[in-house]
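[retry 2/3] Peptidyl-prolyl cis-trans isomerase: previous attempt timed out, resubmitting with same input.
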Amino acid sequence: MTKQQERARARRRHEEKQKTVKPPVSDATRDKQVFGVILAVILVIAALIAVPKIIGNQDNATPTAAATSTATSTASATSTGGLAAGQKLAAGCTAPPAPQANPKSLTKVPDKATAAGKTFIATIKTTCGTLTFELDGTKAPQTVASFLNLAKEQYWAPSPCHRVTTEGIYVLQCGDPTGTGSGGPGYTFGIENAPKDGTYPAGTLAMARTSDPNSNGGQFFITYKDTKLPTAGGGYTIFGKVTGGLDIVDKIAANKALAPNPTDGTPVSPISILSVDVTEKKA
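[retry 2/3] Peptidyl-prolyl cis-trans isomerase: success.
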C-alpha cells in the first residue's frame, strides 16, 4: 500500500469517527443553559417564599397545628374584590370586598377596666349574613376591652376570614384586615381564661396567637365543632361565645379550603366581615 493510499484510508477513518461524536456546546449555548438553571432555582425559591405560612405569623389560632400551605391567600384571592380560582360563593353569600391595603395601626393596649365585670353583645355583619357574639368581660377583661376598641375604630371593616380548618381542629379564623394571616393591630397582650384541658366546645369565641403567649392582637377564631387544642404555651383565650349565625360558619366549613390543603387554608367559599357593632348587655 502506498503512502498516498494510507493517508486516504486514515482520512476516511477520521471522518467516520467524527460522525459519532456530539458537537461541542458553544459558549453562547452554554451560557444559556447556565442561565436557565439559575432562573429555575430562583423561581423555586420565590415560590417557597410566596407561600403564606400559618406557623409563626402574628396572630394564629394553633401554632402547633400543621401549616396551611395555602396556595392562594385571601389577600390575593380577593385583591380585586372577586373570587380566586377555585373559590365559589356559598348559598346566601355575596362577593367579598378586597382586603385592606393599609389597616389602622393602634399602638396602645386598651384599658381592661372598660370591660371588666361586664357582658357585651357584638353584632358582626358579614358577606354571608349576621353573626352575634356574647363577650365575657368578667373572665377575659383585657381581650374584651381590645375587641371593643377595635370595633369602635372600625378596624375590621372590612376583613376576610382567611382560614378554615376541617380535620381534627374545627375553626374559622378571622380578624386580619390584610387577609394574609400575619396582620395585627399594632399591639399585643397576654392569655386570659384558657381551658387547662384544651377543650373548646362548638360556638366558642377565642383569640388566635403565635407560639408567643403574649401575641394576642386582633385575630380570633370560632369553633364550629367541639375541638381540642394544644395547651402548650398556655392555650388560647376564650372571651365569648357565638349566640347566632353558627350555621353560617358551618356552611363555609362544609366547602373546606382551597388546594393544596383542603383541610386547612383559605376557605373555598369566602366570607368577610363588613362591620362590627358592640353594645353592653344590661342585667
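[retry 2/3] Peptidyl-prolyl cis-trans isomerase: The CA atoms of residues 164 and 253 lie 6 Å apart.
[retry 2/3] clearing retry counter.
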